[in-house]
Design goal:
With 200 residues, this protein is of the alpha/beta class. It has seven helices and five strands. The two termini are 33 Å apart.
Length: 200
């Protein structure tokens, strides 16, 4: 894959495609895949790009394939945490995918009823989170859920946020619980994929 990022690697890809009589390529993927498609296009290969990325950060499209399915998975996780939050009288941080785009966190937080939504576009401090928690409890909320966007384990944004000092929160700690990423596509994603694959 690294080789493909170089002009020599791109010319090699062009030569291999021509040797096998391949006249065009359909690329289904996110930012990296579609950048590769643009590189092939510059080499004279006919390319069709289909945006399929849960990050929903592809320019020129309102919704990528996979976003709606991911959003429904997030809502399922939020709904499952509601009973635990109620019974333990604790707040929760929900970390979702999305890389540098806060779309999933924003939509998941709004639809799931989060008190505060943390996005890479507008990151709060731990003090901001603590103030939101206090306000929620003052308004009679018996549980609280956070929707926090961040890159999976390597970036660990939710862990770093919880490490920030705050005299307002008692016993904040970070525990990573993976949630299944694979599920059947929603009806909306199936329809969107079908429309993008239609010859008309």
């Amino acid at each position: 894959m690294r080789e493909f990022k170089t002009p020599q690697g791109q010319r090699k890809a062009q030569r291999i495609l021509q040797e096998h009589g391949i006249e065009g390529v359909i690329v289904i993927g996110g930012d990296g895949s579609l950048r590769g498609a643009m590189a092939l296009d510059r080499q004279g290969i006919k390319v069709v790009g289909v945006p399929a990325s849960i990050d929903n950060d592809i320019w020129g499209t309102n919704m990528c394939i996979g976003v709606d399915t991911s959003l429904n998975t997030i809502l399922d996780a939020l709904d499952r945490l509601r009973d635990t939050a109620n019974s333990h009288n604790r707040g929760f941080v929900i970390e979702v995918m999305g890389r540098n785009c806060g779309y999933l966190a924003l939509m998941g937080g709004i639809l799931g009823g989060a008190e505060i939504i943390v996005t890479p576009e507008d990151p709060p401090t731990m003090e901001d989170v603590a103030l939101a928690l206090e306000d929620a409890y003052k308004r009679g909320k018996s549980h609280d859920r956070r929707d926090l966007r961040g890159r999976a384990v390597p970036d660990n944004r939710s862990g770093r946020l919880l490490e920030q000092p705050s005299h307002r929160l008692r016993d904040p700690h970070h525990d990573t619980r993976p949630y299944p990423a694979r599920r059947q596509l929603t009806a909306f994603d199936r329809l969107l994929a079908s429309r993008m694959g239609s010859p008309r």
